[in-house]
Amino acid sequence: MSGFDPAWLDLRESADHRARNKDVLATCAAHFATRDHVRVVDLGCGSGSNLRALAPHLPARQSWRLVDHDSILLDAARARLARWAETAEETGDGTLRLLRDGRTIEVEFMQTDLARDVASVIGGADLVTAAALFDLVSESWMRGFVASVATARAPFYTALTYNGVETWSPPDARDGDMLAAFHAHQARDKGFGPAAGPRATDILARLFAAQGYAVTQDDSPWRLTRDDGALIDTLADGVAGACAETGLVDQRTIAEWRAARTEAEVEVGHTDIFAQPS
Q1: Which structural domains are found in the chain, ordered by start?
Q2: 190, exposed or middle or buried, with CB in 10 Å at 0-12, 13-18, 19+?
Q3: Could you tell me the pTM of the whole model?
Q4: Which residue has the higher pLDDT, 75 or 116?
Q5: pLDDT tier at 3 (50, 70, 90 boundaries)?
Q6: How far apart are CA 130 and CA 192, in angstroms?
Q7: Rounded CA gap, 39 and 29, in Å?
Q8: Angle 260-264-268 (CA atoms, 0-180°, nearest 5)?
Q9: Environment class of 34 (CB within 10 Å of its CB; exposed 0-12, middle 13-18, buried 19+)
């Protein structure tokens, strides 16, 4: 999977955090409510946004392993988490110890290719988590991943998996063709086999249920207004670029659609899941 620009991750973080489904998040938090310590593995961690969103809902002592293939993103995560914390201390083994809102959070950073090995990465976790990841991986990869999580009997929480909904306002006659082309582009192999795209949440829910997990899921849409103008512009640029790469929409249509998206608003659908062993 190619790396993401830290600037893009920074731009979307506020929208991501406010979109998270509160009921699914509360179910995850309740599972750990009686514990004083939790070990978390965050897959495809990017710049650490998932930790910043989830840590306030977990016990007072936390140990995180942030995993990504991209060393630039891992460096960005270290720097951004240090700024986010009230205090941050580097230990001799490279762990970052953070204090924030009465919580002590120790963070380990791991660079690895999740397409090759995920079972060893999640070993010892009390919670396996990820955000905005699973629409980019294949059903085959998810099958192996879910089996590994189930073998460890670890709970699983993921947020912001794209579910295929994209509703622009004002609507445009070209929206349907653009969305179909975008989905075709999303289905390309990102290094994990043909990506599941909007099918990802249903696949995850089915696979975890087959392992005897109780699955809670609900929607977590971005609802972007003109106050989110920079994010909307970047999103529209990304959609236009992806559609151009497919060859399924002609360049004039793409240019006209992109021009029509100036000062637009949009809802982009996501779904969150918490799965716990029954």
Answers
A1: 6-166+191-224+269-277 (3.40.50.150)
A2: middle
A3: 0.96
A4: 75
A5: low
A6: 15
A7: 13
A8: 110
A9: exposed
* Sign of the dihedral through C-alpha 227, 233, 234, 240: positive
HSE of 268, CA atoms in CB hemisphere, 13 A = 23
Token code pair at residue 274: 């918490």
Which residue stretches of the chain are H helix?
A: 6-19, 22-31, 49-54, 71-84, 139-152, 175-186, 200-210, 229-246, 251-260
How far CA 3 is from CA of 9, 88, 255, in Å, comes to 11, 26, 26
Beta bridge partners of 64: 40, 107
Q: Is 50 exceeded by the pLDDT of residue 2? A: no
Mean pLDDT for 121-147 is 97
Tokens representing residue 166 in the block: 């994209």
Q: What is d(CA 172, CA 174) in angstroms, rounded to the nearest whole number?
A: 5
DSSP character string of 79-103: HHHHHHSSEEEE-TTS-EEEEETTE
Confidence of residue 92 (pLDDT cuts 50, 70, 90): confident
The tens digit of pLDDT for each residue in 233-273 reads 999 999 999 999 999 999 999 999 999 999 999 999 999 99
Q: Alpha-carbon distance 16 to 221, whole Å?
A: 9
Angle at 187 between CA 14 and CA 205, to 5 degrees: 70
1 pLDDT more than 80: no
**Phi, psi angles (nearest 5°) of residue 272:** -105, 150
Q: Which amino acid is at 6?
A: P
d(CA 148, CA 207): 12
